[in-house]
Hints:
By secondary structure, the chain is mainly alpha-helical. The protein has helices at residues 36-73, 81-91, 98-110, and strands at residues 3-4, 31-32. The protein has three helices and two strands.
Amino acid sequence: MTSTVPTAASAPTDAAPTRPADSELELPEVAVPDDQAGIDALRVEIDAIDAELVRLIQQRTACSHAIGAARKKLGGTRIVYSREMQVLQRFRVLGSAGTDLGMMLLAMGRGRLGRR
């Protein structure tokens, strides 16, 4: 028999994102496998997700570098901290590691612009 991993109740969509405890993360339901074949299938799915994440992170980083170059060319500040705070706020829904993930993405996007 296959069981599913329960998810947390949805928060109202108009509420500001807050940092949930790791045990309260809102996750999609995934069937818990009964055998090694099921585990292997989930690992294949994880590998595909990881490949897509890498592709998306590379695209995000390239976009961020282009924005930084344009801001520098136009005489703007190298970093817009209010924008970075907006980005970090989105990642808070991922729990305790969400802000760390957001910070890593911001650092990658800054490239040389974020270093003195």
